[in-house]
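Example 275.
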Amino acid sequence: MITRTDHEQIAANMDTYWKWEWFKGKNYTPSAMHAGSAAISCKYYGQLISGANCKSVLDCSCGLGRKTVLLAEDGLDVWGSDISSLAIEKAAELADQCGQEVKFVLSAWQDLSRNIPRSFDCLINDALAWVDTRRELQDAIGEYYKMLNPGGVVIFQGAHEFSDPDKRAETVAEIIASSRRSTPRESLNGKFSRDGVQMTQLTLTDWLSDAIVHTYLYVIEQDGQLMLETATLAELCRWSWEDFVAEFLAAGFREIHSHELTVEGKTRIYNMALK
Ligand SMILES: C[S@@+](CC[C@H](N)C(=O)[O-])C[C@H]1O[C@@H](n2cnc3c(N)ncnc32)[C@H](O)[C@@H]1O
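Predicted structure in complex with S-adenosylmethionine:
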């Protein structure tokens, strides 16, 4: 069973992480947002959303709201939600700065129908594959079903239809090995300054058999005092395509498929479950 404490812990880590990502500033301004990776992701989403004839979207892992606001700029009726209250607050500021009316709501995926009083044609989640337990996965997918209009879709990434089930262990091992090759064990970034506060960030990365774990240490200097804050984020590779199929169908979805899309010469695979 998922406890309040589990969600409070995720929220606390995400609040700290987003607070300092926002502080660093570089990816979360209106101009950076239009030029960065979120804008590329929204081109893939755009293809899937228009292909499925969706007009309304819930971005339920909105973070600081980049993709949410970009999708609103594309003329969609978009709401954002996230487990981090800090992220929601800053996402609303970003929408204001961009002149977009987007409603942002604080909610865990597993509580969406209690917190959001309407339904959508499409729900996007760019971190569903990182849920820790099967119960959490089931509760999230059950809520997605409730949040969608008939014929609505969930779009997410992770293990996909084209993965070979017999090579699951090798595929996960290669994802972890590739991260190990491209990511330093420790990296130091800084100093970042804003409003009389200075912050230096040390990132430590650990590679487990089915997870990449980032620990962020923030050294903060303010009014001559030093403080330390930490956040931990795990990118999990726990769920196979067969797990996703089983849980979406059990929740009542009619079908689930993977789509290979190319944008600016780069191919990505997204999963889409249909209510
Ligand atoms: C990869 S980040 C999102 C990044 C964001 N979409 C962007 O493009 O900048 C994943 C988000 O999922 C949120 N999250 C993680 N677990 C959650 C849960 N159980 N319920 C709701 N949100 C959750 C995190 O707070 C985080 O903001």
